[in-house]
């Protein structure tokens, strides 16, 4: 039986940014991706339009993609397995990439990884071999930015409910996010962000019904 996974109500925080001032405002369908460089001081907001939709994301120093997001550095420095308002996203070199500045969901997974052809087959059977996956999306996005499979790294699963069981295993459960919930991050340095709107159909991370998300991006103030 999995451990209870609930939002950290003390960490919920709304954003003061005006959507009308965003330099980019797009809807990303399930199974599709988005990428952009968020300039230092700029922000990006990921909105779960219909609720219970998992969103995978990768982060890189825009000027040195080898200095990329590290789950190990981030979790160890923050002392928490899950992320929410105030969490700092750190690189393999310990540099700050982004900080979560607003969060109306309450907690986001760092441990579950991105769905892939290989893991789908192992977990759910050979009939899933040709299903679309976040890894496919990330490979396509990475190629657009001159990267290869070697550059894929730890990812964050926003809105995704992956509790750790008392036995130390991961359990993929239905999400706790609702319609319109969002997470917003501010860039501490120019950060390349790759997002995959998860198409997973074999576990309840998307409530077995992948749905669209909305992404807004703001330029640095001033």
Description:
- The protein has 222 residues and is an alpha+beta fold.
- The chain has one domain (9-15, 25-38, 50-218).
- 12% of the residues lie in helices and 28% in strands.
- The protein is built from three helices and eleven strands.
- The strands form two sheets. It has a six-stranded antiparallel β-sheet.
- A hairpin with a 5-residue loop joins β6 and β7 (96-103).
- It is globular.
- It starts with 23 loop residues before the first strand and ends with a strand.
User: Percent helix among the residues?
Assistant: 10-25%
Write out the strand line-up for the largest beta sheet, numbering strands in chain order: 1-11-3-9-7-6
Report the major sheet.
6 strands, antiparallel
SSE run: EEEEEHEEHHEEEE
Low-confidence stretches: 1-5
Mean pLDDT, nearest integer?
90
What's the gyration radius in Å?
16 Å
Structural class: alpha+beta
| Morphology | globular
- By DSSP, the count of extended strands is 11
């Amino acid at each position: 039986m999995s451990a209870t996974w609930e939002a950290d109500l003390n960490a919920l925080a709304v954003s003061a940014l005006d959507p009308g001032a965003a330099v980019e405002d797009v809807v990303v369908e399930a199974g599709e991706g988005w990428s952009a460089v968020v300039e230092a001081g700029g922000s990006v907001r990921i909105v779960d339009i219909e609720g219970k939709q998992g969103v995978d994301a990768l982060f890189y120093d825009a000027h040195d993609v080898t200095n990329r997001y590290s789950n190990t550095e981030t979790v160890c420095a923050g002392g928490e397995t899950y992320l929410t308002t105030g969490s700092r996203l750190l690189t393999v070199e310990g540099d700050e990439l982004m900080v979560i500045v607003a969060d109306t969901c309450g907690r986001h997974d760092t441990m579950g990884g991105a769905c892939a052809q290989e893991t789908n087959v192992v977990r759910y059977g050979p009939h899933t071999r040709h299903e679309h996956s976040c890894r496919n999306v990330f490979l396509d996005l990475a190629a657009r930015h001159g990267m290869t499979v070697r550059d894929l790294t730890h990812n964050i699963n926003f809105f995704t409910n992956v509790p750790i069981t008392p036995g130390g295993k991961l359990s993929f459960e239905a999400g706790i996010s609702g319609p319109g919930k969002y997470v917003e991050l501010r860039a501490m340095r120019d950060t390349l962000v790759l997002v995959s709107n998860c198409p997973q159909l074999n576990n309840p991370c998307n409530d077995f019904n992948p749905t669209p998300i909305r992404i807004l991006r703001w330029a640095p103030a001033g």
